[in-house]
Amino acid sequence: MHQEPSGTERAQDPSPAENGPPVARRVMLSVLGAGAAALAAAPLLRRGWDGLLGAAAQNDPTGLTGLLPGTDGFRYFSVAGSVPRRTAADYRLEIGGLVERPQTYTLDALRALPQTRVVGEARCTDGWRVQDVPFSGVLLSHLLDLAGVRAEGRAVRFTCFDGVYSESLTLEQARRADVLVALDMLDAPVTHDHGGPVRLYVAPMYFYKSAKWLSGISVTDKVVPGYWEEYGYAIDGWLDPSA
Amino acid sequence: MPSTAGSTPRPDGPLPRFSWAERLVHRVTAGLLLLCAGTAACLYLPPLAQLVGRRHLMVVVHEWSGLLLPVPVLLGLTSRVFRADLRRLNRFAPYDRQWLRAVRRGTPGPRPAGKFNAGQKLYAGWIAGAVPIMLATGLLMWFTGLLPVIPRASALFVHDLTALAIAIVVLGHLRLAYRDPEARRGMRTGVVTRAWAKRNHPQWVEELTHVREDRR
Q: Which of A4, A45, A68 faces B157 most closely, judged by CB atoms?
């Protein structure tokens, strides 16, 4: 380096003038301190920040507030590169595996079955949550009854027409009264981005259990871990009701 | 350092500014940051998330590029030149306060600065604090059992807000680099022209001149 020729002393002491206070180190330590404080105060700060964002989003024709990190509201997640679109014309739900009567439903056939409405929470492991989201559709237990689960059936595996995603529930979980094959979300047909035309809704669990773009339901003799479960997510994604 | 070490600045010739090691540290850090921020955008911004999908791949690249981000700087610490420049970045000189005042008042014309101006010093300190925050909150989300007292949502919140701040500050860094081709050339080739240095880092040029006179 250029100041080295005059000796190592200069390398240690680059410029007599630049011997003042270590401002950069102080800035670094302040930033670290602020980060730690924010971590401790996050539960409080989050509420204020979401309130602020909510208020700003009301008067935001540009939609730019959508880019700010809020913890309210849905976010789009997909594990596949692209997801084909399915409509009433080409959508099919196949129910098979360890059942007496394998079934294939069209969207209209699902609509013709008794509909149930469940209002619940959508909470993602990535921090966002939306409360009081109405879903309606056919109870999974009803579809299983129509197909007739054989005695050796213990669990249910779900597959999706994105070609990649899969999920699982035990038979007991699948028979709960708050587990739906949802056709409507937010009181309108489930949109493509939300996993339409048909998605699962498992109200008591984290939202990754509510598989989008549902196309197959298969009864199995044991739980087959789903997509994220293979990467270490809990197989039972129960929500902590106190949180 | 083969490119610059031992070269004596001539009165009119180019000035050696960054060593080979420093430029490598900068380049690798920039690459890792781009990967880390790019995959973050694909995970986070709805239009990009819809376009790209492949969530698991994005997560893996994001996690590893983030984890490796401080490594080039830590390896750089083995270089004496790099350590000397870190020391320059750390310490304020009296003229650094003048530089800040001139910026605040929008005074035109050359502002006093050593090898690094006060803005660069503040930027270095700030980013040196922000990256460990990202690392710590990222690890808290990655290994949820690490510190059960801290809720995952809190780590996520701090990670998101710090990311937003880093995005703004780094965009500022890129904008300043974009507007100054000669500064970019300094980081790319290691040398700058004397005229540029006199304009932007007058005290540094003065100091180099003294070094040369000392040797006579």
A: A45
Cβ-based contacts under 8 A for chains A and B: 186
Q: How far apart are CA A241 and CA A131, in angstroms?
A: 12
pLDDT at A69 over 90: no
pTM to 2 decimals?
0.70
CB–CB of A23 and B121 under 8 A? yes
Q: How high is the ipTM of this complex? A: 0.86
Is there a contact between A1 and B81 if contact means CB atoms under 8 Å apart? Answer: yes
- Phi, psi at residue A138, to the nearest 5°? -95, 135
Work out the angle at residue A238's Cα, subtended by the Cα atoms of residues B42 and B44, and round it to the nearest 5 degrees: 10
How many CB atoms are closer than 10 A to CB A137?
26
DSSP per-residue letters across A148-204: -B-TT--EEEEEETTSS-EEEEEHHHHTSTTEEEEEEETTEEPPTTTT-S-EEEETT
Give the pairing of strands A214-220 and A93-97. parallel
Does the pLDDT value for residue B174 go beyond 80? yes
Backbone torsions φ then ψ of A199, nearest 5 degrees: -135, 165
* Residues in B 84-103 with any Cβ partner in A closer than 8 A: 84-85, 87-96
Collapse the DSSP code of A73 into the 3-class scheme (helix H, G, I; strand E, B; otherwise coil) and give the result: coil
Contact state of A2 with B157 under an 8 Å Cβ cutoff: no
Task: Give residue B61's pLDDT band: very low, low, confident or very high (50, 70, 90).
Answer: very high
Alpha-helix runs per DSSP H in B11-117: 20-44, 46-52, 55-68, 71-76, 80-90, 94-105
- Shortest CB distance from B46 goes to which of A28, A75, A82? A75
Chain B residues within an 8 Å CB radius of A239: none
State phi, psi for A75 to the nearest 5 degrees: -130, 150
pLDDT in tens, B103-139: 999 888 789 999 999 999 999 999 999 999 999 999 9
Q: What pLDDT does A150 receive?
A: 95
| pLDDT of B46 higher than 80 | no
CA atoms within 13 A on the CB side of B50: 10
The residue written with tokens 């250029």 in the block is: A2
Q: How far is B43 from chain A (nearest CA, A)?
A: 8
